[in-house]
Design a protein that fits this description.
It contains 6 helices and 12 strands. It is of the alpha/beta class.
């Protein structure tokens, strides 16, 4: 599974060390040499990891501080690169999950990212939306069911297309079989949004543990398949 990272840094030595080291861990690296361009990239693209030079890049601290308010990357795993001006405690207070100290070394980077990999994979799985098309049934009550078609599926919910009206209501369940499996799921759900044109978003609010494990495995297989294509 390929992961994606953004490195906001103009220090050539840091880039020289980090890029090949992360690529060995199947983490692709995009580099932005300025805080402003890094912030612009973060506003339009999603990354599994964001790495910011806080002490030697003008505006780097602001990029780290604003990350948790960024709609696309507020839950991305973040790394602060420090060089004596910012303390580790301050970096964590600004939202960093991990800290790298200069001079950045291959061994130190590997130790840090080996620890962070599980968090990055979990984040990738959480937001990854699989394009699909399969039938689902919205169980609104014992006597009311609405047939629909799922158009994407993630760990947290799905987008659907349906005919007729669909109002938000309590006690909703969504019943479906995971594509290409014999696994049937019926998590409790709620309507997150509806556009009035027959499209809506369904958020899973309670998924039994056994079903969640099956869904996580299914999504991981889809991520790996997408990475190979």
């Amino acid at each position: 599974m390929n992961l994606e990272s953004l490195l906001v840094c103009r220090d050539a030595e840091v880039v020289r060390v980090l890029r090949p080291t992360l690529e060995k861990l199947s983490i692709e690296v995009e580099v932005s040499a300025a805080a402003r361009s890094g912030a612009e990239i973060l506003s339009s693209a999603k990354f599994d990891a964001v790495i910011v030079d806080c002490d030697d890049l003008q505006g780097g601290v602001d990029v780290l501080r604003s990350l948790r308010q960024n709609a696309s990357n507020k839950t991305s795993v973040s790394f602060a690169i420090l060089n004596g001006k910012t303390t580790t405690h301050q970096a964590f207070e600004m939202g960093a999950n991990f800290v790298l100290q200069k001079p950045v070394t291959t061994a130190g980077t590997l130790r840090c990212f080996h620890t962070a990999l599980a968090f990055m994979i979990r984040e990738k799985r959480r937001y990854f939306r699989c394009a699909v098309e399969f039938p689902v049934v919205l169980v609104c009550s014992q006597s009311e069911e609405i047939k629909a078609t799922a158009t994407n599926l993630s760990e947290g919910g799905m987008a659907i297309h349906f005919e007729g009206a669909l109002a938000k209501r309590p006690g909703l369940k969504v019943r479906f079989a995971l594509p290409e499996t014999k696994v049937t799921m019926e998590p409790q759900a709620e309507i997150a949004w509806a556009d009035g044109l027959g499209r809506a978003g369904v958020k899973f609010v309670d998924v039994p543990e056994s079903s969640r494990e099956q869904l996580e495995k299914w999504i991981l297989r889809r991520i790996e398949r997408a990475a190979r294509s």
